[in-house]
Amino acid sequence: MLNEKRIRLMSRMAMYEQNEGKEDLKISAYYQKDYASLNAWITVIWITIGYAVIAGGVMFVFLDQIFNEATISTLLIIVGAAAGGYLVVAIITAIFAYDFYRKKHVEARKRVKKFNQNLSRLGKMYEKERR
User: Fold this and answer.
1) Helix (H) or strand (E) holding 30
2) Is-contact 30 38, C-beta < 8 A?
3) Across the chain, which distance is largest between two alpha carbons, in Å?
4) Integer Cα distance of 54 and 56 in angstroms
5) What is the pLDDT of residue 124?
6) What is the model's pTM?
């Protein structure tokens, strides 16, 4: 005899596993601090690459003006402004990325915990049926 509650529970669990379950299980394998820190660092690395590409592009566009009209002091001011801008962008991005990935880990852990509770319920249903 088919148990409709068990079938519904199994189909819900299977849908979760196929959709967001794979990512949630990977995320929940990390400690929260480790997951958030690792992804914040990865984000900062990508921000650094993007900032370097944009700064290089801007420098390439204005290269003629920079070398024709610039003095050592203006070059130092430009480099200082670029470095200061990078630091501000990197720090703000790191803070937001850490918070975002921390929240993402918390939500994934909640879903995995519910999945594990459903697994326990399913096991109890099978045990009841055997008796």
Assistant:
1) none
2) yes
3) 90
4) 5
5) 87
6) 0.81
